[in-house]
C-alpha cells in the first residue's frame, strides 16, 4: 500500500468512527480531508501514462462514499443546501448509489419537495441495496405520495387527532398554497387576497415555520424572563436558518420591516412553492442583523394553543415562530381568516365566507375589545390599524363619550345587563345599523357573553336586550368564528340539554358552523359533531 493510500485509510476510519459516534461537525472536517486526498490521488492517477482502471474505480468509489457520508453529517446539522450539493457530487460518480439517494430523498422530504423526494426513493429501489431495505424505502415512498397529494390538492384531515384530544404526535402535514395571491393592499403594503369565492372553513395555506421556539412560562416574573430567553433563542435559530439556506435568506429579505411598506416589492407566488429549487448556498452573503431583527419584530407570530383552550385547559404554553406566506397577511379587527398551529406548521383557513378578490386578514391581537383598547394593542404592534372597523369606530364621534361611560361602568363592575341595554338603546339613538351595530356589539362582546352566561342576568334583561342568537350572528359577521362566541353558544345548548339529536337543532347547526369557522374543513363533519357533543357534556368547558 502506498503512503497516500495509507493516509487515506487512516482518515477514512477516523471519519467513519466520528460519524458512528454522531460527532457531525468533526466528521465533516475529516470527510472534507478525505475528499481532498481522494481528488488529489485521482488527478495524479489520471496523469499516469497507463492508469490502473481498478485503482481508479476504487478511488472513485471512496470519493462517492465520502461525499455521501459528508452529506449525511451535514443533513444532521440541517445544513441542507450543502448536503444536497454533496449528494449531487456523489451521484455524479455513482448515479444509483443507494445511501446517497436515500439521504437525498430524506433531505428533499424535510424541505417539503415531495415530488423530487419521490424520484429519489424510486431510484433507490433500483440499487441492489434498495431491495435489502424494501420496507423502509416503501415506507418513505408512501409518505412522499401522501404529502405530494396533500400539497397539490389541499386535502388534509385532522379529525382523528383532534378527537383524540390533540394527544400524541400531530399528523404529518405537507406545505400547501391554496386559492390566494399576494397583491398590494389598501390596508398597508402587501396583503394576501382570495382568488375565488370561498366558504367558511376553506383551507388557504399550510406553511412550515422557518424557525420556532417553545417553552412553558412560569409565574409573572419568571414568565417575563423565560419569554426574553426564548426570544433570544428564537433569533439565534432564525440566524442559523438564514445562514444555512439561501432560499430562506431570500424569502426573509422580502418581508416587511414595518417601514415604507408601499415601496415593497410584490413577490411572485412561485417563490412560496417548496418544489422550486433554491439556488445554492448562502455562503459569502453578509447578514444584515438589524434588518432581520426588525423583520422578526413585525412578522413573528405567537402560537395560539386553540386546542388547549377549546378543551378547557389553560396552559402556560408559549411558542413564537416565523411562517413565511402567513407573514403577508395583514391584521384586521374585521378579519375573515384564522390560523391553527399544528406542530411546526401554521394552517390558515377562512373563518367566514369570503368573496373572490377580498383581502384575507386575521387578527394579531384580541379584537373582542373596544376601539381604544384595540388602538393601544395595535400601537404596541407598531402600527395604527387602518381596518374598516377601526375607521368606523374612530369616526363615530357622537357616541364616543357615552361609550366611554359604558366602559368605565363595566370596569367599575356595574350590572353588565344594564351596560348592554344602554349600548343597544344608544345604537338606536345614534342610528347605528347593520355592520356598524355588529362592530359595536363585537367591541363589547365580553359584556354580552356575561349576560347570556348568567341565569340571573338573563331573567332580568332578556326582554330588553336582543336574543343571544341575534348578537352571535352579528358578531360572527364581524370577526368570523371565535372560540369565546362558540363557548356561549355551547353553554346555551348545555342548558337546553341539546345535542345534535336534542331540542336545539338550529342552535346545534349554528355551533357546527362556528366550529367549522374555528377549525376549518380539516376537521370532518362527524368529528366536529362529536367534538361539540363532548363540549356540551363536559362540565369544565
Ligand atoms: C406581517 S406584516 C403584514 C404584511 C405587510 N403589509 C407587508 O407588506 O409585508 C405586518 C405589518 O403590516 C402592516 N399592517 C398589518 N395590518 C395592518 C393594519 N390593520 N393597519 C395598518 N397596518 C397594518 C404593519 O406595518 C405591520 O407591521
Automatic annotation (TrEMBL):
TPR repeats lie at residues 64-97. Gene3D superfamilies: SET domain, Tetratricopeptide repeat domain. The keyword Cytoplasm does not apply. Keywords: TPR repeat. SMART domains: SET, TPR. Residues 178-365 form the SET domain. The keyword Magnesium does not apply. It holds the Pfam family SET. PANTHER family: TPR DOMAIN PROTEIN (AFU_ORTHOLOGUE AFUA_5G12710). This is SET domain-containing protein. It comes from Hibiscus sabdariffa (roselle).
Amino acid at each position: 500500500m502506498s503512503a497516500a493510500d495509507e493516509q487515506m485509510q487512516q482518515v477514512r476510519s477516523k471519519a467513519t468512527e466520528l460519524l458512528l459516534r454522531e460527532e457531525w461537525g468533526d466528521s465533516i472536517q475529516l470527510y472534507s480531508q478525505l475528499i481532498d486526498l481522494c481528488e488529489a490521488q485521482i488527478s495524479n492517477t489520471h496523469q499516469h501514462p497507463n492508469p490502473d482502471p481498478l485503482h481508479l474505480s476504487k478511488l472513485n468509489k471512496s470519493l462517492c462514499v465520502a461525499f455521501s457520508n459528508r452529506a449525511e453529517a451535514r443533513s444532521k446539522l440541517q445544513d441542507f443546501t450543502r448536503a444536497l450539493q454533496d449528494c449531487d457530487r456523489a451521484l455524479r460518480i455513482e448515479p444509483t448509489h443507494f445511501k446517497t439517494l436515500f439521504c437525498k430523498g430524506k433531505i428533499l422530504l424535510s424541505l417539503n419537495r415531495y415530488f423530487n423526494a419521490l424520484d429519489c426513493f424510486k431510484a433507490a429501489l433500483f440499487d441492489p441495496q434498495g431491495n435489502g431495505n424494501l420496507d423502509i424505502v416503501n415506507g418513505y415512498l408512501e409518505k412522499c405520495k401522501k404529502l405530494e397529494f396533500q400539497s397539490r390538492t389541499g386535502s388534509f384531515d385532522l379529525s382523528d387527532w383532534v378527537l383524540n384530544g390533540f394527544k400524541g404526535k400531530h399528523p404529518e402535514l405537507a406545505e400547501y398554497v391554496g386559492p390566494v395571491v399576494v397583491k398590494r393592499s389598501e390596508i398597508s403594503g402587501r396583503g394576501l387576497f382570495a382568488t375565488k369565492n370561498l366558504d367558511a372553513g376553506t383551507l388557504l395555506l399550510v406553511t412550515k415555520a422557518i424557525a420556532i421556539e417553545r417553552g412553558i412560562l412560569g409565574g409573572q416574573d419568571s414568565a417575563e424572563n423565560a419569554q426574553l430567553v426564548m426570544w433570544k433563542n428564537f433569533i439565534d435559530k432564525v440566524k442559523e436558518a438564514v445562514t444555512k439556506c439561501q432560499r430562506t435568506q431570500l424569502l426573509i429579505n422580502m418581508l416587511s420591516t414595518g417601514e415604507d411598506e408601499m415601496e415593497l416589492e410584490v413577490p411572485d407566488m412561485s417563490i412560496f412553492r417548496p418544489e422550486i429549487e433554491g439556488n445554492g448556498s448562502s455562503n459569502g452573503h453578509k447578514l444584515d442583523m438589524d434588518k432581520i431583527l426588525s423583520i422578526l419584530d413585525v412578522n413573528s407570530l405567537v402560537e395560539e394553543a386553540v386546542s388547549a383552550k377549546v378543551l378547557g385547559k389553560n396552559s402556560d404554553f408559549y411558542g413564537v415562530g416565523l411562517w413565511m406566506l402567513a407573514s403577508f397577511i395583514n391584521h384586521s379587527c374585521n378579519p375573515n381568516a384564522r390560523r391553527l398551529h399544528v406542530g411546526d406548521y401554521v394552517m390558515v383557513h377562512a373563518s367566514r365566507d369570503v368573496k373572490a378578490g377580498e383581502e384575507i386578514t386575521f387578527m394579531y391581537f384580541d379584537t373582542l375589545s373596544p376601539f381604544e383598547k384595540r388602538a393601544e394593542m395595535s400601537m404596541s404592534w407598531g402600527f395604527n390599524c387602518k381596518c374598516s372597523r377601526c375607521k368606523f369606530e374612530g369616526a363615530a364621534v357622537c357616541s364616543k363619550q357615552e361609550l366611554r361611560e359604558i366602559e368605565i361602568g363595566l370596569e367599575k363592575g356595574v350590572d353588565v345587563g344594564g351596560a348592554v341595554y344602554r349600548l343597544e338603546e344608544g345604537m338606536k339613538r345614534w342610528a347605528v345599523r347593520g355592520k356598524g351595530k355588529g362592530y359595536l356589539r363585537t367591541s363589547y362582546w365580553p359584556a354580552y357573553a356575561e349576560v347570556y352566561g348568567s341565569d340571573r342576568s338573563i331573567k332580568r334583561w332578556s326582554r330588553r336586550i336582543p336574543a343571544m342568537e341575534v348578537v352571535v350572528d352579528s358578531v360572527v359577521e364581524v370577526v368570523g368564528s371565535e372560540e369565546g362566541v362558540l363557548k356561549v353558544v355551547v353553554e346555551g345548548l348545555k342548558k337546553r340539554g341539546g345535542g345534535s339529536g336534542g331540542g336545539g337543532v338550529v342552535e346545534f347547526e349554528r355551533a357546527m358552523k362556528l366550529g367549522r369557522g374555528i377549525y376549518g374543513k380539516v376537521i370532518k363533519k362527524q368529528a366536529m359533531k362529536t367534538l361539540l357533543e363532548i363540549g356540551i357534556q363536559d362540565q369544565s368547558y
